[in-house]
């Protein structure tokens, strides 16, 4: 199969919609990361997503819809706080989990009785979803556990020859996946941190909890697996620059090519080392993280991460991805 990278417009949107209706998978741009989409009503198409990614069948997907789509077709309950949150944050990087009406394929929810729904703000995503005019089940468009894709080329690197079309909307501005919010209880609970923060949600909903997955439990949301977003090279992770320097020097002495991934404040103290600078603000770190993890795996035999100091807000999502990428238990 030839994989074409094309703009999300004109005949390519028509082709993308035709592929979706025919049970094929199409990669598409969102404001967070690229998604690998299939018709959420089609069992075989949804199973193909799991097969293409090498993704466990109990790891649920997200149903993506355009802003005009009537989600009451898909969900069984809609608490008042959920309606307020949609008005405040959608379209945008917030995925909301509801009791499912059972209309979409059961494979989308990974055996759960809930459905995760997202309305992207990316114009490219909205154009594609309007052309398809049905819920598109999509995880991130990367092989399972690999670093998430934020450019069309990242998708191509993982899926060339395996899917027919990548709709290229440019680089993703957000850089990490959407916040996933459980809206099935009296108080919303964050299942996966992202760009819409706990503080932002609580301001609208009155309260917001954070869910902690228990051992042996099925994941309620994408991105809850322990090791995730991982570069294809050896990694080490440290809380301090001194430890990172020692690991770097040891790898260099072995004849390797180490590289250090760190926030800008740490980078300023590491002159002479091969560095990947995440930036100085939470937004910069979110936007650069996956680009730099993919760059690091290409140029380093050992990628060394240093823990950023800032906490709270968007950093909850950045730290979640960093820890999972480097296999750090929290």
Question: What would your notes on this structure say?
Answer:
- The chain is an alpha/beta fold and 330 residues long.
- The protein folds into two domains: 4-210, DHBP synthase (Alpha-Beta Complex), CATH 3.90.870; 234-325, Threonylcarbamoyl-AMP synthase, C-terminal domain (Rossmann fold, 3-Layer(aba) Sandwich).
- Helix content is 32%, strand content 18%.
- The longest helix is centred in the C-terminal third of the chain and has 18 residues, at 282-299.
- It is globular and about 60 Å long.
- The relative contact order is 0.15.
Radius of gyration: 20 Å
Uncertain stretches of 5 or more adjacent residues: none
- For CATH, the homologous superfamily of the largest domain is named as DHBP synthase
Count, helices: 10
> What class do helices, strands and sheet pairing give?
alpha/beta
Number of domains: 2
Spatial arrangement of strands, main beta sheet: 1-8-2-3-7-4-6-5-9-10-11
CATH class of the largest domain: Alpha Beta
Order of helices and strands: EHEEHEHEEHEHEEEHEEHEHEHEH
Quickly give the CATH architecture of the largest domain: Alpha-Beta Complex
- Kindly identify the CATH topology of the largest domain: DHBP synthase
Biggest sheet character: 11 strands, mixed
* Helical percentage: 25-40%
